[in-house]
């Protein structure tokens, strides 16, 4: 996890004469309760401190704030573990926060001003179940110095989207949080997007595409040529004291009837930069091919690229051979070469600043929003077949048992011997070579597969988490409409490239650690104790056990998955294990990668589409003395903020990609309202069931009020809704038949009605319900069904 954010130390308030937060609840007149410095305070005090100090609520900071040492620190650790198990607190980076609280770093949309003219923002991403998104007071810096005391401090305005450090507000009369701007994420000030609807007499209305959006009036002179049903981008033209806002059309994206416009909705809604500034394009166009300076000539080595058939850029190439050393009998040498983006994208250049602003490329079914301009990503850095290209290569030696004996990094000039697709390479190995792969089979492809099988021995011994969650792809027709949804086969060719890239990433982290070079790791924390307990209780209803204790490993989950394989519960168990996992992030502080079961791991293999990889490339170039383009001291000092930014942008990209798929599927199914579908219960909440259509990969909602006349009780541990009187209900993973009741394409929302009868719940679930009734917990039944307005 990343370093603890540098915030205000509670003790500094005492030195300045202000009441310390440990003794007072955020400045309230009433003291929380008597606290003896050096003794463990009550639970309520700890919880209040965590709520008030989201940026300082680590175990170390808590111990420091309350003066805890020795046995008191041990007791604090145990108390925090109990609070986490009970769901009273949760981890966010290195700090603890209360559930529903903002994390130490968040993306905010600036939406309004307070009575004093101060900017107010709200989190760009906020779960509906957490209630109304909290307001955050934006504090603009009065100092001209920016991050690390250099450059200009970022300044934001209305309509901007920002990345900010979050602090609990001292003044209880205003917003619950304050924020300091880390950076402004590009977004046209005051810009909004919606569907243009003509009105009689000229002009029109803007119908919002977001749930919290508002209608606007567009005067006849400001329509910008938009036609009824066009997706348009507008800016507010005039704000009146009464009535609707008036807007001016800035651009027409296209007819909303065309699904090619749908990805633009997500691009706009998430503030994803998608137009390169002129200075960035100019720098990319002026770039010249790399020279042989500080490079080894590897152009005779037959490295090949293996990618999806429709790939436009190629950033990794591979080659394998037997190790001739008598000290490593039957061992192999695996070479992975990665495009040398660091040669072209230098620190703090226009290209670099724009790449950091994007963080990563974003992939939609109909388009890609690249991190770098095409001149760089698809041309100069792409490892094209038969063309000289600069690269960073790692040469790894493995024993016949799959153990790595050593590795070395090299800055090279290479020439790809062939560009193959996964299917093409696999077909050749399976005995169906074509004219291109036939001559390559013996000298190149078979040695690669032999090396993979040796490396697989090491992977099997390591036992990373092996979830079986097939990824669906949407295939579009030429007009942009959905043709079909399918699950591409998982080939050994995919696994070969994946394992070679993983080992290259490990080698990068190991080398930089050995050089004592600061870097950005890819880290993945283990599941929290609270999530483990939820999973444990759920598995118990299936007769599967999960050992208690905090030292769970990835192979513990593999045993569970193996027990469920081939049973009716296989999909359900895979989904629940996935939900129990933490989210991987980037950080300059290493805690290892739980899912891959690796202690040292850094992203190195995709610098064309991920900024984290570019940072690792620069770190390698600088620490190994490989020439120009190395990491700078300013970058090293900013790694904490950079890691937080790119982690946030990765989540932004994932949300935008997921929402676009939801909208495409909803658009595709909009003409099938009333049709019946086979579905699977993919989520259980207090409000109803989320169901998935396996044939489409689409998710939809069934309100609890439509399940029947019984009152339904929600059981989180068993992921079930059960009728209080009948004992019949629905659980996660149940196969059901549903009817499509409503589709809202622009929101990506589907509402279904349940056609299947509930089934008898297991004994453990019924016992839970009896206990619930004894404790007088009210049964759940929604008071009615409202039309869908947006996504969940």
Explain how this protein is built:
The protein has 792 residues and is of the alpha+beta class. The chain folds into six domains: 43-97, no CATH class; 105-185, Beta Barrel (OB fold (Dihydrolipoamide Acetyltransferase, E2P)), CATH 2.40.50; 192-256, Beta Barrel (OB fold (Dihydrolipoamide Acetyltransferase, E2P)), CATH 2.40.50; 278-526 and 584-654, no CATH class; 529-581, no CATH class; 671-768, Beta Barrel (OB fold (Dihydrolipoamide Acetyltransferase, E2P)), CATH 2.40.50.140. The chain has a five-stranded mixed beta barrel. Strands 8-9-10-12-11 form a five-stranded mixed beta barrel. It has a five-stranded mixed sheet with strand order 13-20-19-16-15, covered by helices on one side. Helix 11 packs across helix 15 (611-623). The two termini are 28 Å apart. 42% of the residues are buried. The model is unreliable at 1-34, 144-150 and 774-787 (pLDDT under 50). Residues 1-30, 768-792 are annotated as: Disordered. Belongs to the RNR ribonuclease family. RNase R subfamily.
State the main characteristics:
6 domains; five-stranded mixed barrel; alpha+beta; disordered N terminus; five-stranded mixed beta barrel; 18 helices; 792 residues; OB fold (Dihydrolipoamide Acetyltransferase, E2P); 34 strands
């Amino acid at each position: 996890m990343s370093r603890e954010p540098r915030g205000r130390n509670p003790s500094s308030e005492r030195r300045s004469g202000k009441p310390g937060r440990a003794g007072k609840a955020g400045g309230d007149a009433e003291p929380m309760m008597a606290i003896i410095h050096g003794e463990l305070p009550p639970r309520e005090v700890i919880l209040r401190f965590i709520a008030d100090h989201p940026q300082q609520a680590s175990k170390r900071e808590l111990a420091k704030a309350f003066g805890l040492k020795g046995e008191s620190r041990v007791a604090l650790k145990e108390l925090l573990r109990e609070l986490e198990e009970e769901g009273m607190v949760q981890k966010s980076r290195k700090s603890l926060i209360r559930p529903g609280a903002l994390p130490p770093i968040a993306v905010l949309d600036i939406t309004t001003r307070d009575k004093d003219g101060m900017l107010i923002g709200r989190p760009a991403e906020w779960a509906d179940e957490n209630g109304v998104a909290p307001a955050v007071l934006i504090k603009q810096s009065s100092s001209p110095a920016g991050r690390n005391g250099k450059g200009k401090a970022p300044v934001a305005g209305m309509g901007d989207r920002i990345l900010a450090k979050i602090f609990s507000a001292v003044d209880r009369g205003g917003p619950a949080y304050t924020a300091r701007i880390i950076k402004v994420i590009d977004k046209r000030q005051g810009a909004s997007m919606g569907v243009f609807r003509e009105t009689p007499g000229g002009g029109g209305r803007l119908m919002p595409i977001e749930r919290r959006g508002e209608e606007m009036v567009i005067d006849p002179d400001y329509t910008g040529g938009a036609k009824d049903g066009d997706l348009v981008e507008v800016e507010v033209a005039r704000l009146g004291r009464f009535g609707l806002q008036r807007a001016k059309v800035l651009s027409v994206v296209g007819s909303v009837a065309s699904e090619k416009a749908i990805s633009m909705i997500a691009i706009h809604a998430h503030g994803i930069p998608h137009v390169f500034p002129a200075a960035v394009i100019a720098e990319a166009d002026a770039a010249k091919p790399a020279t042989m300076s500080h490079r080894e000539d590897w152009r005779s080595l037959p490295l090949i690229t293996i990618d999806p058939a429709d790939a436009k850029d190629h950033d990794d190439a591979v080659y394998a051979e037997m190790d001739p050393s008598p000290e490593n009998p039957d061992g192999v040498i695996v070479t992975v070469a990665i495009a040398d983006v660091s040669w072209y994208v230098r620190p703090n250049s226009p290209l670099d600043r724009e790449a950091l602003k994007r963080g990563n490329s974003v992939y939609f079914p109909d388009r890609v929003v690249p991190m770098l301009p095409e001149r760089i990503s698809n041309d100069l850095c792409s490892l094209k077949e038969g063309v000289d290209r600069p690269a960073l290569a790692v040469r790894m030696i493995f024993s016949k048992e799959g153990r790595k004996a050593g590795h070395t990094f090299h800055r090279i000039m290479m020439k790809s011997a062939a560009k193959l697709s996964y299917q093409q390479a696999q077909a050749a190995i399976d005995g169906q070579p074509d004219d291109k792969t036939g001559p390559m089979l013996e000298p190149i492809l078979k040695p690669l597969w032999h090396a993979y099988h040796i490396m697989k021995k090491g992977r099997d011994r390591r036992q990373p988490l092996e979830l079986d969650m097939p990824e669906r792809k949407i295939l579009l027709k030429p007009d942009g409409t959905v043709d079909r949804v399918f699950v591409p086969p998982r080939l050994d060719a995919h696994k070969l490239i994946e394992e070679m890239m993983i080992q290259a990433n490990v080698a990068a982290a190991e080398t930089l650690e050995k050089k004592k070079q600061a870097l950005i790791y890819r880290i993945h924390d283990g599941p929290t104790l609270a999530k483990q307990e939820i999973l444990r209780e759920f598995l118990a209803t299936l007769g599967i056990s999960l050992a208690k204790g905090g030292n769970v490993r990835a192979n513990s989950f593999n045993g569970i998955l193996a027990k469920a394989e081939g049973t009716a519960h296989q999909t359900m168990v895979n989904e629940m294990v996935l939900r129990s996992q933490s989210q991987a992030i980037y950080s300059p502080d290493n805690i290892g990668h739980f899912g891959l079961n690796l202690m040292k791991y850094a992203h190195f293999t995709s610098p064309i589409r991920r900024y984290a990889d570019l940072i690792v490339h620069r770190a390698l170039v600088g620490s190994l003395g490989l020439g120009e383009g190395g990491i700078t001291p300013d970058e090293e000092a900013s790694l904490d903020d950079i890691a937080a930014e790119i982690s946030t942008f990765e989540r932004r990209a994932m949300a935008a990609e997921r929402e676009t798929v939801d909208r495409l599927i909803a658009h595709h199914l909009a003409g099938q309202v009333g049709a019946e579908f086979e579905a699977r219960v993919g989520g259980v909440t207090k409000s109803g069931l989320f169901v998935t259509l396996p044939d489409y990969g689409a998710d939809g909602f069934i309100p609890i009020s439509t399940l029947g006349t019984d009152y339904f009780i929600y059981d989180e541990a068993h992921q079930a809704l059960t009728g209080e009187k009948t004992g019949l209900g629905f659980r996660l993973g149940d196969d059901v038949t549903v009817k499509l009741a409503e589709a809202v394409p622009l929101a990506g929302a589907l509402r279904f009605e349940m056609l299947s009868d509930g089934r008898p719940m297991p004994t453990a679930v019924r016992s839970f319900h009896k206990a619930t009734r004894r404790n007088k917990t009210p049964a759940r039944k929604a008071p009615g069904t409202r039309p869908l307005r947006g996504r969940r």
